[in-house]
Amino acid sequence: xxxxxxxxxxxxxxxxxxxxxxxxxxxxxxxxxxxxxxxxxxxxxxxxxxxxxxxxxxxxxxxxxxxxxxxxxxxxxxxxxxxxxxxxxxxxxxxxxxxxxxxxxxxxxxxxxxxxxxxxxxxxxxxxxxxxxxxxxxxxxxxxxxxxxxxxxxxxxxxxxxxxxxxxxxxxxxxxxxxxxxxxxxxxxxxxxxxxxxxxxxxxxxxxxxxxxxxxxxxxxxxxxxxxxxxxxxxxxxxxxxxxxxxxxxxxxxxxxxxxxxxxxxxxxxxxxxxxxxxxxxxxxxxxxxxxxxxxxxxxxxxxxxxxxxxxxxxxxxxxxxxxxxxxxxxxxxxxxxxxxxxxxxxxxxxxxxxxxxxxxxxxxxxxxxxxxxxxxxxxxxxxxxxxxxxx
Length: 392
Fold this sequence. Notes:
By secondary structure, the protein is an alpha+beta fold. The chain has twelve helices and 16 strands. The chain has helices spanning about 15-25, 55-65, 80-90, 100-105, 105-115, 135-140, 165-170, 230-245, 280-285, 290-300, 335, 375-390; strands spanning about 5-10, 25-30, 45-50, 70-75, 125, 145-150, 160, 180-185, 190-195, 200-210, 220-225, 250-260, 265-270, 315-320, 340-345, 365-370. The radius of gyration is 22 Å and the shape is globular. The N and C termini lie far apart (about 60 Å). The model has no long low-confidence stretch (mean pLDDT about 95). Keywords: ATP-binding, Ligase, Nucleotide-binding. It comes from Streptomyces macrolidinus. This is ATP-grasp domain-containing protein.
């Protein structure tokens, strides 16, 4: 009797996810929102189901297909990681317990679950109503950071330096979801990319990041891998693995943001998915680490893909254009042909004025590049950014 081909149910997949499933020889079922754009390599047919708002309909249709084992549902975005865990639990398919991605999604719930298992706890207060914020801010003290418990992409993040700034912030705040007030952490900010399997948690890379700084801390660049001194790396590894153990995370990539303070690493937040801002691409470009293929292979009981073949350095830099004039039409072909450049994109439509950058979705464009050394990478990125902005 021939072996049954494993099946991967993919929720709104990126092109890299589809390619990874194809390389593993999986039977692929793509599920997409009715209006969601899909990559050119998406196999047909596609199940168009409003899964982000009607998970019951998705479970019902997948149940009706009577798919033979092994089969699992995979979502590698913020919504998809949570939805896929629920689908797998309800259909008896392998995957993370729903409690794990639910803890990542709620920053207060994550802190409560982790406690002191990931280093010194960060002081915080959860507020379910706007009128609770003044007392919470007074309790934490200035400076502090306030943000929605379920926010992503720096949306709603605000640094409050003193009482005057707090009064202005509260007067303008539209409070439509619980918020968390946290102590402000000072130091160097990094993210940690990890991959979890039944055998444990493996740290893939430490990623250096830059941000706009206060008050919104929107990310402006990432570089990986970076090396820190041995004691710092060991402390970071312990923090991340302790946190992942605490929430019961069993399968797949995670992206954990930490602040390396004078007293050691402190947990900012974590996500049960690959890092955004093309970090999963940077892992492939620099280290041959395909987190999508490795996750699907592990969950479906297939041999793991070959170990990484080379080590380079990869990075992404976000660009800002003149906000006082409408965006011109810009060709990216010249920048894409420059040494080391892997991807270039402009996210502002021609004729529109570039927005003020207050959250990740406001950024104007980006360049992804590689180099054999950190110096070569920085040279390639600087040349690409300079060329791109000079054509505006």
